Amino acid sequence: MTEDHQDSIGTSRRSGSRFRPARRPPAFIAVPAAIGLALFALPVLGLLGRAPWSRLATLLGSDMALEALRLSAISSVSAAIISLFLGVPVAWILCRYEFPGRSLVRGLVLLPMVLPPVVGGAALLFALGRRGLVGSPLYEATGIVLPFSTGGVILAGVFVAMPLMVLTVEGALRGLDHRFERAAETLGAGRWTVLRRVTIPMIAPSVVAGIALTWARALGEFGATLTFAGNLQGRTQTLPLAVFVALESDRDTALALSLVMVVVSLAVIVALRDHWWRNG
Amino acid sequence: MARRLIAGSFAILLFVSCAGAGTRGSDRVEVLVAAASSLTDAFRDIEAAFEEAHPGIDVVLNLGGSSLLREQILARAPVDAFAPANVAIMEEVRAAGLVSGSARVFARNTMTIAVPAGNPGGVTGLDDLARPELLVGLCAETVPCGRFTRQILLKAGVTARPDTEEPNVRALLTKVERGELDTGIVYATDVRGADGVIAIAIPEVYNVTTDYPVAIMSGTSHPEAATAFVAYVLSDEGRVLLGRHGFELP
Asked: What is the pTM of this model?
């Protein structure tokens, strides 16, 4: 608790503000804040209260649970890695280059964040489905069908999660002090060296945060996955889909799987907050 | 520029929502009806006809997989009337003490094989659902449509190789309609209402018939309006509309 306070003082001092945290927040802030926090905490408490603690190991050892865990691990990590390799260059271009329609492109990139995932899934189906705009020639030429495959799950994850990577990294690039890069250049460093030794290390914390956010978003992805990739145990049935299906037949398994998602996501987010965001 | 765009969007949203509210009128009694996905088209027609006959009542349909609706009702969702695709589901809700009065069967349905227009997979019968090279979709076993499908496959001795198990029949139908799936088993009434889908009949010996019950929920806050709606579903007018959508009538 005290550490936290000191840290925030340190941060604000660095940014040149005179702000000092008060001992107790005024009621007009404390009350809505408490309601807001309750809104986050209550559903988690509800889940914990109903969780089948004594049978947890048995429930999570079922074929359905194990396959969903495996598939979610594979697809969310893959989606985060692909988002890294595609999203960072997108952020780079959006931040560093002037071109007509840039704000429109930025809007397009962020669209999956505001679009209902089901709509995103349907859009993916229209574009990349077997009868889709791109999917149809792809199928004719190679026989590859993306819907109803694990590849489709990963694709849906990338689609909904990559905006978080772009957003995080673009913010970091924008806040970067260009003088460091320029100094390196005047000292004779080539473009590649500047990138590798100056720019990337400086935005690294944000890139890591971006990876964590995209991973967490891909892990929780449901609507686009169901619409685009369908639901088949072992191939496309990720944790959220397994929870959804089990909720209607085997509530205890659904609760056990939900618990896993809460614990894993919370652990990653809390760990990241302590390690990277503090200095980012 | 951006600010004007945002302000403009909000103005449009505000206008649309006000206009919407204006046509609805706030003094109408709202009846929330939870109904099986397979009733989607029929109940939309019934809603429109009923509201015309009862201007003081606004029917709000919550359409979804019957078992999802059951979960919502068991979690005490404020549902006034319930129409699942299966009597067993109604019985579970009754066992929880949430049904008021008796449940009445108002429609019957059977299952059929659905293929997209042109039948690209060359599907002719149930056996084709076992062909590995076809993209086959079934309803998930947790919804009535999926349970019936498995009963049919069991009776016919076919081991299907599904590529997806959709959580409700409408999702499955849409994917067949789009040609993303080569075939799937859906309700006979679904194919009747869909344009890009052809039905391939399931032999009567293997097929199953399902009864649709409707009942008023004991938690209803508008018992009179809910009673009026249920009565309309069971009335001759309701039967005509259900028949038009391919339902068999008890």
From this structure: 0.79
For residue B199, the cross-strand partners are B114
Cα–Cα distance measured from residue B141 to residue B150, given in angstroms and rounded to the nearest whole number: 8
Which chain A residue is nearest to residue B65, measuring alpha carbons? A248
Could you tell me the residue range of the domain that residue B201 belongs to? 109-209
pLDDT of residue B179: 92
Residue B14 lies in a domain: no
User: What residues in A contact B68, CB-CB < 8 Å?
Assistant: 247-248
Residue B173 at interface with chain A, using a CB cutoff of 8 Å: no
Residues of B in contact with A249 (CB under 8 A): 67, 141-142
Rounded to the nearest integer, the mean pLDDT of chain B is: 89
CB B232 within 8 A of CB B46: yes
- Reported as a single tens digit per residue, the pLDDT across A15-47 is 445 566 667 889 999 999 999 999 999 999 999
* Distance in Å, alpha carbon of A250 to nearest chain B alpha carbon: 9
User: Tens digits of per-residue pLDDT, B200-216?
Assistant: 999 999 999 999 999 99
Backbone angles phi, psi at A150, to 5 degrees: -60, -35
CA nearest neighbour of B30 among B234, B213, B231, B224: B224
Contacts B164 to A, Cβ<8 Å: 148, 229-232, 236
Q: Are residues B204 and B224 in the same domain?
A: no
Which chain B positions have a beta carbon within 8 Å of A147's beta carbon?
180
Nearest to B142 among A227, A233, A249 (CB): A249
In this structure, are B75 and B160 located in the same domain? Answer: no
Rounded-to-integer distance, Cα A182 and Cα A111, Å: 34
A147 touches chain B (CB under 8 A): yes
Instruction: Find all residues with CB under 8 Å of A43, minimum gap 6, and list them.
Output: none
Ramachandran region of residue A86, left (φ > 0), alpha (ψ -120 to 50) or beta?
alpha
Substitution target in A222, A232, A241, A251 with the highest count of B β-carbons within 10 Å is A232
Question: Per the structure, how many domains does chain B have?
Answer: 2
Residue B170 touches chain A, beta carbons under 8 Å: no
Give CA–CA dist A187/A177, Å, rounded.
17
More confident residue, B10 or A199: A199
Residues B135 and B80 in one domain: no
